[in-house]
Amino acid sequence: MTEPAYVSETRTAYDTVAESYAELLRDALAEDVWDRAVLGAFAELVGPGRVGDLGCGPGRLTGYLASLGLDVFGVDLSPGMIEVARRTHPRLRFEVGSMAALELADGALAGALAWYSLIHTPRADLPVLAAELARVLAPGGWLVTAFQVGDEVRRVENAYGHAVSADAHRLPVEFVSEVLSDAGLVVHARVVREPEKDYETTPQAYLTARKPGGS
């Protein structure tokens, strides 16, 4: 089966920028109180069990969640990103894979992180990703996703000092909430902040959702 063009473009783009991306964002979390607050809440909510950083990039958040005591591993579409992640965090597990078809059993995860990893998928295909996230979460499991707020598709042709070619989708908060709800997840918290960094031009959203069931 031939994969969609946007998947191939996204993989190529992140392979291209992997080293520069990792270097430029290496210390970004130390300066971002909102990211740390959301990730900290996620770490407290998640019960015992495995946590997947899905679309993990070079593993910077995988490593942070591990430092908070979570049993976390990373999955990313880009082999280049996974190579950097394995080198940077040799004690953690990282695998190349697709969020649309995760090699995980039903209910395998106590928690899932989709941090700016839905943004390259067209809206029509987002329900497939949401259904897959819901499938791999155990009853009572938690999901956090982050994305740029908006209602447009931006063509990215330069990123982290490299020429690339990929689409980035800015998404309405209510739309993403509905997609997660339709997949059977219950949205518990919505956080939207104004753009703060030089490269941010839109508000940033964080949604926390839970799969019903469990204790």
UniProtKB/TrEMBL annotation:
Q: Is the keyword Manganese assigned to this protein?
A: no
Question: Which residue numbers delimit the Methyltransferase domain?
Answer: 53-141
The GO molecular function terms of this record are: methyltransferase activity
Database matches in Pfam families: Methyltransf_25
Q: Which Gene3D superfamilies match?
A: Vaccinia Virus protein VP39
Q: Name the keywords, alphabetized.
A: Methyltransferase, Transferase
Q: Name one GO biological process term.
A: methylation
**What protein does this entry describe?**
SAM-dependent methyltransferase
